[in-house]
Amino acid sequence: QTSRAPATSVSAESCIPAGLRLGPVPGIFKLGKYLSDRREPGPKKKVFSYIFYDFSVTPVFQVRMVRGELVDEAGSSALEWIGLIRAARNAQEQTLEAVADLPGGQIFYRALRDVQPGEELTVWYSNPLAQWFDIPVTATPTHDEKGEERYICWYCWRTFKYPNSLKAHVHFHCALSHGRPFLHHDH
Questions:
Q1: Looking at the predicted structure, is the pLDDT value of residue 163 above 50?
Q2: Model confidence band, residue 159 (pLDDT cutoffs 50, 70, 90)
Q3: Residue 34: exposed, middle, or buried by beta-carbon count in 10 A (0-12, 13-18, 19+)?
Q4: What is the tally of structural domains in the chain?
Q5: Considering only 32-36, 67-71, 87-91, 104-108, which range has the smallest mean pLDDT?
Q6: Residue 124 has pLDDT above 60, yes or no
Q7: What is the CATH number of the domain that holds 32?
Q8: Range 155-164 average pLDDT
Q9: Is residue 144 part of a domain?
Q10: Of 125, 119, 74, 120, nearest to 97 (Cα)?
Q11: Residue 95's CB: how many other CB atoms inside 10 A?
Q12: Domain contains 156
């Protein structure tokens, strides 16, 4: 998510279990900088994990990856494609959350639930990481004249269809918010 190149979607080739951590995320972390309300079609990349069962003592479900990593169909490691995972526009499409063990530490993506084969991987900040980066944690919808939910920037009044698009706008793009901490939605 570091450039405006054609959007690439990353999807699961096989089930990715809840709690699996990917990463660390390489480079400068700017999740959501190019997030848009629209989803532009682009190339797709499939990734998969290798799942094995260990019946040696008790039936235990264990996830193992090739050489300890989740790899894509070409065998490339997560460091080569993790940056291609799109930012989630809302909680309903989110499959991963960005987390860090320590404030300012390395960032990882963690599966929020089992991700099914064919499902796109999308990520957004965990609440502690959002607070660390001064990203708004909440966004309250209003309803337009057609009754559709919209999210309005409390600085410049620009309207968004999705809450995370608003949050990214406030943090990365709103000329009126720069230099000020974000206001909570009730201000």
A1: yes
A2: very high
A3: middle
A4: 1
A5: 67-71
A6: yes
A7: 2.170.270
A8: 95
A9: no
A10: 125
A11: 23
A12: no
Domain region containing 16:
9-133
Whether residue 14 lies inside any domain: the answer is yes
For 73-92, what is the mean pLDDT? 77
Of 23-32, 73-82, 153-162, which range is least confident? 73-82
Q: For residue 30, give the 3-state DSSP assignment.
A: coil
64: left (phi over 0), alpha (psi -120 to 50) or beta: beta
Q: How far apart are the first and last CA of the chain?
A: 31
The one-letter amino acid at 139: A
Nearest to 69 by CA among 119, 20, 123, 128: 20
Q: Residue 186 domain-assigned?
A: no
Residues in Cβ contact with 155 at an 8 Å cutoff, skipping those fewer than 6 apart? 170, 174, 176, 177, 180, 183
3-state DSSP call for residue 74?
coil
Would you state the structure tokens that stand for residue 187, as one six-digit string?
């201000």
User: Dihedral (C-alpha) 77, 127, 184, 155: value to the nearest 10 degrees?
Assistant: 0
| Nearest alpha carbon to residue 127 among 174, 157, 164 | 164
